Hints:
two-stranded antiparallel ribbon; globular; three-stranded antiparallel beta sheet
Amino acid sequence: MSIDFALDPVTHDLLFENDSLQIVTDEDQLAQNLKIRLQFFLGEWFLNTGVGVPFYSEILVKNPNVANIDAIIKAQILDTVGVSQLLEYNSSFSNALRSYSINFTVRTIYGEQQIELSLFDTTI
Length: 124
């Protein structure tokens, strides 16, 4: 059984309900882990600067290559412990809005899971 502290989906802070720290398990923990991995900047963690998505060098650049971004994100998804297969992947990129969102379905040790995520938007 996988277990982790639950994070608020909006603020990414620890989630408390009725003054009690919440936890996530199994498929919810795996979905949360996927979202964390996909929002983790390369070099962000001082103990292993090789972990993360290369946002600064490959994604948050002038005239980004969407096919390259998709390949980077897909590799991160497939490299996640518990994920065995990427079944469906759709991305939406808007240069005018400076937004990139993904919707994907993966086969995991818990079955199929569908995940939606906005990696960045005009607030960045």
